[in-house]
Amino acid sequence: MTITRQRPSSIHPVVMVTGGAGFLGSHVCDRLIAEGAHVVCVDNLMTGRRSNVAHLRSSPRFALIEADIATELPQIDVDEIWNLACPASPPSYQLDPVHTMLTNVMGMKNCLDLAHRTGARVFQASTSEVYGDPEIHPQVESYRGQVNSTGPRACYDEGKRAAETLCCDYQRTHGVDVRIARIFNTYGPHMDPHDGRVVSNFIVKALLGEPLELYGDGSQTRSFCYVSDLIEGFFRLMRTATVSAGPVNLGNPDEFTMRELAEVVIQMTGSPSKITVRALPVDDPKQRRPNIGLADTLLSWKPVIPLKEGLSSTIAYFCTELWLAQLDKEH
Ligand code: NAD
Ligand code: UDP
Fold first, then answer.
1. pLDDT digits (tens, 9 = 90+) for 4-52
2. Catalytic residue among 93, 131, 156, 170
3. Angle formed at CA 292 by CA 82 and CA 243, multiple of 5 degrees
4. How far is the CA of 197 from the centre of ligand 2 (A)?
């Protein structure tokens, strides 16, 4: 297939962002547009929303192409490919597990093939899920993980592990410049209120005065990173001159139990909601916290937004989202 080589008459880079209409991808698009790049957002809108990039549509440097990266990637001459396409919440990636696996593997291969043909640098949004239910705590990049390859989370965990393998093989065999971020749980504006992740679930339920559902006894832990901190880490990783030193953990090392999170959300929203208990999903990791020593050394990066500060902006965002949804329903 031929590559569209005609470029905009500008010194600014042409950048493809797969999954650019999703939570994290839309923040990447924002920053790239602010930097002056030409941005081609490729998204099948499975979990992404047009509203996340609506404010960019008026920019002559922004284009949204509706396409499925598991099938085919638009062949455009690009300088960078940011691969964020993949549903990220357990309910959404388990909805069509075969497609999730193909998005991770075939989608990654399509990105790497395009990079090989154009010389583009590739950013891969990998995940702390590559560590599975970890026995090493906090998780360091050299830990190889404990993943159940046949369980309901495997389409995502093993898909992301295979994607990392492809990245490293294309780097070794074809010299493709890849940057792999192992992202730990991140939250903030542009999250879909209904995508099923814990921060959005808890805040939305609390704002609606409905019970917050704690899966299991709530003693499992996660470490939550505010989106602006994560995006800063992304750009430092992508823009460092250092040739990739392998995957880099990006996340906030402050660790909380899910019960603590539920209590903080109820307190911060002033909600009358109660906490109810539901069965723990299969293979739900018991603990998760990043060791970010490598990101600190390589990128001089550390998150700076504490949980309560990040939750405060996120609660304000969800308030507006729920209000807009209510207006939509009534008018
Ligand atoms: P998200 O679900 O909000 O965004 C994913 C985007 O990818 C959506 O816009 C969706 O429509 C699109 N997409 C999915 N499959 C596609 C396909 N086959 N072709 C084209 N587009 C497709 O999720 P997010 O939180 O923004 O996550 C972005 C990336 O970061 C994902 O790859 C995810 O695995 C990774 N990640 C996120 C977190 C987190 O806490 N947010 C943690 C670890 C890893
Ligand atoms: N969780 C919960 N209530 C919810 C959603 C999730 O108690 O409404 C728990 C879930 O079982 C997990 C943790 O919160 O232990 C984080 O879940 P999430 O889906 O956000 O991310 P992941 O499991 O992928 O880290």
1. 777 776 678 999 999 999 999 999 999 999 999 999 999 999 999 999 9
2. 156
3. 50
4. 6
pLDDT at position 12, please? 86
- CB burial of 145-177 (b: ≥16 within 10 Å; e: otherwise) equals bebeeeeebbbbbbbbbebbebbbebbeeeebb
The pLDDT value given to residue 187: 98
The pTM of the full predicted model, rounded to 2 decimals, is 0.97
Residues of the chain with pLDDT under 50: none
Burial classification of residue 5, based on how many CB atoms lie within 10 Å of its CB (0-12 exposed, 13-18 middle, 19 or more buried): exposed
Q: Is 156 a catalytic residue?
A: yes
- Contact residues for 87 (Cβ-Cβ < 8 A; gap 6+): 46, 47, 93, 95, 100, 103
Distances (CA, A) of 117 to 6, 41, 138: 15, 19, 38
- Which residues touch 325 (CB under 8 Å, ≥6 apart)? 193
The response to whether residue 198 sits with its C-beta less than 6 Å from ligand 2 reads yes
Q: Return the CA Rg of the chain.
A: 19
Q: Is residue 241 classed exposed, middle or buried when 0-12, 13-18 and 19+ CB atoms within 10 A define those classes?
A: exposed
Would you say the CB of residue 164 lies under 6 angstroms from ligand 1? no
Ligand 2 center–CA 19 separation, angstroms: 22
The pLDDT, as a whole number, for residue 267 is 98
The end-to-end CA distance of the chain, in Å, is 47
Amino acid letter, 180 = I
What ipTM, to 2 d.p.?
A: 0.99
